[in-house]
Amino acid sequence: MPKPAQWDSTLASAIIAAHSSLDGAALPILHALQDEFGHIHEDAVPLVAQALNLSRAEVHGIVTFYHDFRRDPAGHHVLKLCRAEACQSMNGARIASDLLATLGISWGETTPDGHLTVEGVYCLGLCACAPSALFDGEPIGRISSETLADVVQQARAQ
Amino acid sequence: MALIQETDYGTPIRITDKAVTLTIDGESISVPAGTSVMAAAMMLGTQIPKLCATDSLEPFGSCRLCLVEVEGHRGTPASCTTPVEEGMVVHTQTQRLADLRRGVMELYISDHPLDCLTCSANGDCELQNMAGAVGLREVRYGYDGANHLDAPKDTSNPYFTFEDSKCIVCSRCVRACEEVQGTFALTIQGRGFGSRVSPGGLDFFGSECVSCGACVQACPTATLNEKSVIELGTPERSVITTCAYCGVGCSFKAEMKGTTVVRMVPYKGGKANEGHSCVKGRFAWGYATHKDRITKPMIRKTITDPWQEVSWKEALDYAASEFKRIQAQYGRDAIGGITSSRCTNEETFLVQKLVRAGFGNNNVDTCARVCHSPTGYGLKTTLGTSAGTQDFASVDEADVIVVIGANPTDGHPVFASRMKRRLREGARLIVIDPRRIDLVQSPHIQADYHLPLKPGTNVAMINAIAHVIVTEGLVDEAYVRERCDLGDFEVWARFIAEERHAPEAVEDLTGVPAADVRGAARLYATGGNAAIYYGLGVTEHSQGSTMVMGMANLAMATGNIGKAGTGVNPLRGQNNVQGSCDMGSFPHEFSGYRHVSDDATRQMFEAFWGVSLQNEPGLRIPNMLDEAVAGTFKGLYIQGEDIAQSDPDTQHVTAGLKAMECIVIQDIFLNETAKYAHVFLPGSSFLEKDGTFTNAERRINRVRKVMPPLGGMADWEVTIALSNALGFPMNYKHPSEIMDEIARLTPTFAGVSYEKLERLGSIQWPCNEAAPNGTPMMHVDRFVRGKGKFMITEFVPTEERTGPRFPLILTTGRILSQYNVGAQTRRTENSRWHEEDVLEIHPFDAESRGIRDGDLVSLDSRSGDIALRARISERMQPGVVYTTFHHAKTGANVITTDYSDWATNCPEYKVTAVQVRRTNRPSDWQARFFEEDQALKRIGTDVNAAE
């Protein structure tokens, strides 16, 4: 996964301007900002508000409504583990808690070395191969503690 | 009187022609189509349990407590979001509903603290009431699960707290901020169980919140609660009265405990504000009992002596004897009086009566001299009466709104909220202002045209707009033919059609691209109902009166006067500036704008007052000061006005004041003018007296006494006492008797009485036989003067010119949290939003002078110089700087000049040529100010000093 750019308000303004004529521009803008900077920097909120003639509270409401929008930069890699019913029934909860214990972090946290962020999601639509996960956007089916250990190793290697 | 509980219908009252009949709990009722089942039930007196609904907000349907059963409908719809239907049969109380409601309430209470007894909203909490109404007896879920009980409390706002742990996330506050106030400062942060109300992730004080109080009022729990209630407990009685800040004239319930105000809550029945408020009226009333209040009369021989506290009798006798001595020594015309736009109609009327009948001259003037006197002149000349044409509600029907030289979101916030609501509904907006005010662009508001003209070119701009309308065939000819003087119109049309008025011809002068002017003109003329709202950016110019007439020309030419949604509307600055003008405060006019030379009118007053009156106009404020400097004007009675701070060219004002021999100040504080006074008579705040204020829509509202006057006498009683001491007896036991006299002597007030005000709530003048209940809209079928009169509006540039020494233009204005000279708001927590006046300057002008944000800069004009901090702002256009005049120590009016409107002497506050440079010290004037502030405000040490 490419390293996100450092926060840069000029660049952010250009990204916002490029999308602000779209209908319902807030989400495309926020996605574009997150793609560029890896998260929605707090200084981005007033810029988006200004561009779309919204209040900064409204933009804050949008950003916080969607868990996918980060307020802080993630680790170099992001592992999303499904916590919904189908995956729970296939031992997903246990696999997840073991992984978190091994890494010494909680849901949504990043390892101290900054390599890996682990987040919960609620259904990836991959119930047929539960328990499932998403690593840097790539789906992984039928995860086990072993496959996750490989993933962690892969994350640390890069 | 008990605490007033206003009926909450749960959803807004709809007004439609079609009626729908339905049955609720066996009772039949007919209601307007579009009414919710909830509101219809309330009309029958049935309150359906609810939490997220309140009638100031559109229905939301989130709390699920207001469920009802409707025969033939499946399920249990929410009564707030279900509109009535013909023949509907509704049940609001069944076992099934009771079980559902109790279950819902149980969930709410499972995440709510059980500290009712010690809660600040105890006894005033809808959640508590609803728990009682649904019969909640236990919470089976326990309190051990995930909850928000430890959520931190936000106390950053000076007036209210946000106690998140008590929040039920009904969104009433968020919706009030959006729908009622239009600021959108609140949101629901997060989702699901994590959903919380948030001022954009910041604290309240640091957020976009403007502290209007709408959220606090909407909150059904203690989550958003006034700090004064937390401190004092819930109030015990309410008195309906009128705010003493701006000209919107909001009605409030003063909620009291004994003679202590617990809180001021906007009154839904108030027709000017309909339940809304701003940070000033809602919260900034603490000045009334501030320790700086002077409550004992004081006198001194010279202004360098310390003040000595004396009895009322001694002070009044001294004032009377001095006035008599001066008149004996220098002539009858050597004294005068200034009425206050902050006092009541009755008090103002008495002061001008005292001057005309007691002093025996017409030397009476008022602060409207320095704000809206051109409005009076301009609208009277063209339309026939000195007042705005519409009521505030008219804006709800405007399709195009033109805001000229006004900043409603700061100066008239409650009306601005109403205007913004209409703009969000789709009305188009044209802003003509040198500065990019909030209305140009703010959340959900975007002006179609902002014409950022150079200060001082208003008339050129209005002529250019008129030129487009005339030359592009956009005149409403049928209207002009029917309603206006055709001869005048034709002369005007020929004048305005001259090529020199074309937008292209004046582009260099105004600095506004011609295409924008043409676009705005076409929009105004063709966009449907078009309404002009204007402020002091129109009047406070050397051509203020010309500009007012230019706007009236424009409205007449396009048929935009005489129906809802149109008009020419001054946004008046002070609570009773309309009233003080109506009451005969000007040297040339009796009450109701009748000239003193009009024999019939004068004889009526002479007969009633039993004295002969002068038939020549007296002195205006600037003339009084000029004559004082010249040595022919020696004594002045000033009620509730601070000309040493508010009037232009401070150094000239103070020179005039220093030259007088007896200045009598009647005020609640030892103000700037009092530094030069010899007698101080304690005034009373609006909370301490009965009377009436008249707002910008000519609405006469009652002011009601909630506490005794701190100094022992209300202002009207003081004037009576002074008059009696002077030997011109006055005898009124109650302000209602003064109003009776006003009604008797003033045709436009003939039908006004306290009894009728009590009955109707408020009355818009004219109120007489022809309009017994008042007149919401003027000039409906014909203009007051008969035919509308088009006036020639030749642009004449001001003599105040920029040049190499003074290359920038200074314009002045105000800010939301402060009011006028700040005497009131500076003595409240409002100062936390605006601790000092700053100079707004465009980045370009700042950079070329090496000025950084926050630098102390010297602002120099031909009149004087002051130092203040710079704020770099792109609101400004290059070449124009801006400041406010709320703080006496800044001395913004040291800079302003004594140029004034050609017709009315209204000062040209809005255009002063200045230079700005960095400095490291206060100006000489400011240094002297600090010295004199000490020296001239001393109170004798043998008595308790005020401070």
Automatic annotation (TrEMBL), chain A:
Record: residues binding [2Fe-2S] cluster: C82, C87, C123, C127
Pfam families tied to this protein: 2Fe-2S_thioredx
GO molecular-function term, one example from the UniProt record: 2 iron, 2 sulfur cluster binding
Key words, A-Z: 2Fe-2S, Iron, Iron-sulfur, Metal-binding, Oxidoreductase
Cofactor note: Binds 1 [2Fe-2S] cluster.
Family to which the UniProt record says this protein belongs: Belongs to the complex I 24 kDa subunit family.
Protein name: Formate dehydrogenase
The species this protein was found in: Microvirga vignae
From TrEMBL, chain B:
Single Gene Ontology MF annotation: metal ion binding
Domain 4Fe-4S Mo/W bis-MGD-type residues, every copy: 236-292
Domain of life, per lineage: Bacteria
InterPro entries: 2Fe-2S_ferredoxin-like_sf, 2Fe-2S_ferredoxin-type, 4Fe4S_Fe-S-bd, 4Fe4S_Fe_S_CS, Asp_de-COase-like_dom_sf, Formate_Dh-H_N, Formate_DH_asu, MoPterin_dinucl-bd_dom
Residue ranges constituting the 4Fe-4S His(Cys)3-ligated-type domain according to the UniProt record: 96-135
Stated family: Belongs to the complex I 75 kDa subunit family. In the C-terminal section; belongs to the prokaryotic molybdopterin-containing oxidoreductase family.
PANTHER family reported for this sequence: FORMATE DEHYDROGENASE H, RESPIRATORY NITRATE REDUCTASE
Name this polypeptide is given: Formate dehydrogenase
Organism, scientific name: Microvirga vignae
